[in-house]
Amino acid sequence: MREEIRVVLAEDQGMVLDAFAALLDLQPDVSVVATAGNGDEALAAVERHRPDILLTDIEMPGRTGLEVAAELQRAGDPVRVLIVTTFARSGYLRRAMDSGVAGYVLKDAPIAELVAALRRVHAGERVVAPELAIAAWDHADPLTERERELLREATTGASNAELARRLNLAEGTVRNYLSTAMAKLGARNRIEAANTARERGWL
């Protein structure tokens, strides 16, 4: 008999969350010990229940799944993170690997593949959907962390002066970072640059 795999499941779409939980609970060796509808709830559930695996989506309210994984890595939490998402973006996969994620699979995969990935991750392996592994090397992320931060903030509509105050930077420094990011992405303005970066999974 297989060892029980204790899972916290994080997904912001209620119907998808319930469906995943029900399907996983049908497995004799998988136990969904808690569910979460956003990144903050996921972190709290991991701290409270100490699962073997956090199975999480990427795009959720509050912290994203990638930000949750990075926070758990910084905290030295032993939980293994398996990302399950609709987004086959190379930038997301690279950031996931940098955040110590143990697996990355797509939502449109059969449930049998997801369960197999859970078991492999629990056994200490790293699992990546083959199509994602190939796509990961199509585009290298050219942005620095500061450029990424400023592009995220720029989408709020804040002026350079407001961004400078918010991030405690000189206004000229903000302008230079944004100009460099736009040049790297071949964008005409900050919003176009942010959209391009988001489409490629770099934000």
From TrEMBL:
Query: InterPro entries recorded for this chain?
Result: CheY-like_superfamily (IPR011006), Sig_transdc_resp-reg_C-effctor (IPR016032), Sig_transdc_resp-reg_receiver (IPR001789), Tscrpt_reg_LuxR_C (IPR000792), WalR-like (IPR039420)
Checking SUPFAM superfamilies in the record gives: C-terminal effector domain of the bipartite response regulators (SSF46894), CheY-like (SSF52172)
Q: Which domain of life is it from?
A: Bacteria
Record-listed 4-aspartylphosphate modification sites? 57
Where does the Response regulatory domain lie? 6-122
- Output the GO biological process annotations, alphabetical, semicolon-separated: phosphorelay signal transduction system; regulation of DNA-templated transcription
Sorted keywords for this record are: DNA-binding, Phosphoprotein
Q: Which Pfam families match?
A: GerE, Response_reg
Residues of the HTH luxR-type domain: 136-201
Q: Which PROSITE patterns match?
A: HTH_LUXR_2, RESPONSE_REGULATORY
UniProt GO molecular function? DNA binding
Q: What protein name does the entry list?
A: Two-component system, NarL family, response regulator DesR
Give the organism the record lists: Saccharopolyspora shandongensis
